[in-house]
Design brief:
- The chain is mainly alpha-helical and about 110 residues long.
- The protein is built from six helices and no strands.
- The chain has one domain.
- The protein has helices at about 1-10, 10-35, 40-45, 55-80, 90-95, 100-105.
- Helix 1 (about 1-10) packs across helix 2.
- The longest helix is centred in the N-terminal third of the chain and has 26 residues, at about 10-35.
- The protein is elongated and about 45 Å long.
Length: about 110
């Protein structure tokens, strides 16, 4: 998985097409991982009120990372050139520099 993340961060090496396919594969893997662990996630969320400060901090941090990753996925889909070429922002993304919120959430892209 780490190798795929390293490849995702190096678009000049992989090219945009492979970058998008690797990203789509990782998103699918993450959804499968979350689906397989949904009971554990629900249990952790239920025990949030009675958890200690350190556990609450980790839960909040994990949630913030998940939100940022979700924003990265959504913006990635919006500017997709090959997998989803008909998205709203695809034409603009080809001609304009990335001055949107994407670099804030996705510093690797």
């Amino acid at each position: 998985m780490a190798i795929f993340f390293l490849l995702l961060m190096n678009v000049p090496v992989t090219g945009v097409l492979l970058h998008e396919w690797i990203g789509a594969g990782l998103v699918a893997a993450i959804f499968i991982h979350l689906a397989l662990n949904r009971r554990w996630i629900a249990g952790v969320a239920r025990r949030f009120k009675s958890a200690g400060t350190k556990a609450k901090g980790r839960f909040v941090l994990d949630t913030a990372i998940a939100v940022a990753a979700g924003a990265c996925v959504v913006t990635g889909l919006l500017i997709s050139r090959f997998l989803f070429p008909r998205t709203v922002s695809a034409d603009r993304a080809r001609t304009t520099p990335r001055t949107s919120v994407r670099p804030v959430f996705c510093s690797c892209c």
